[in-house]
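User: Hand in any protein.

Assistant:
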Amino acid sequence: MRRKYDLETLEGKSDCCYRGAVVSVFTGGACIGAALAGPTGDRLGRKWTIFIGAVIFILGGGLQTGAQNLGYLYAGRAIAGLGYVHCKSKSTQSDD
């Protein structure tokens, strides 16, 4: 991770701070997705909400895969978190 994202040139911060941020940004996207998943499900229904969430998750994964710097990686994680909650929130309600 140090070489890929050029963290060797940054002084004063260890790479564990950046690793923690990469994990936390997914959760931040999931928090935003949680606020949007309910109204989306009410308007479009369960199947379309899951479909839209899957597309958003795939776009976030693609952005993470092609990330050339930490900004792209953070954006991909946030977008993937947003899509994950759309899929998960509606699929668990149907199991009850």
